[in-house]
Amino acid sequence: MKHNLKVQFMDIDEATNKQASAIDIRKRNFEAIDSNPRFFADPQHLKKVGQVQAIVDKFFKIKKGIYIGHRMNKGKPFTYVKVDSPNWPNTLSSKTKQELYYGPLEELGTEIKSTRQGVIHRVF
């Protein structure tokens, strides 16, 4: 039997989606913190997160914003520093990018993941 089901999302208000997303993000942050309070409150971890935030803020001159959140990650928790809609500084040489961005983040043990909306830096 063939079904002609159509799912329409046009009647869902964009603001509702953004609000639901914000609620989900907060919920996941609190769950991570509740599950790993020592990790997320560790002064060394907090320092590392601050360093990552400073590096990406300086490197990406043009961006919508920087967001910080926490995840449980199946026993290996991390804090993420997300750069929203960054403009990659393509005029910089590869050597300069390595010195200012990739190298320092690598030294901090940061995992970098590019997405359509931005760049996520996982701090373990």
What can you see in these coordinates?
The protein has 124 residues and is α+β, with helices and mostly antiparallel strands. It has one domain. Helices cover 47% and strands 19% of the residues. It contains 4 helices and 4 strands; from the N terminus they run αααββαββ. The protein has a 4-stranded antiparallel sheet with strand order 1-2-4-3. The longest helix has 22 residues. The radius of gyration is 18 Å and the shape is globular. The N terminus is likely disordered.
Main traits of this protein?
single chain; 124 residues; alpha+beta; four-stranded antiparallel β-sheet; 4 helices; 19% strand; globular; disordered N terminus
Q: Short summary of the structure?
A:
This protein is of the alpha+beta class. The protein has helices spanning 14-35, 37-41, 43-59, 94-107, and strands spanning 65-71, 78-84, 111-114, 118-123.
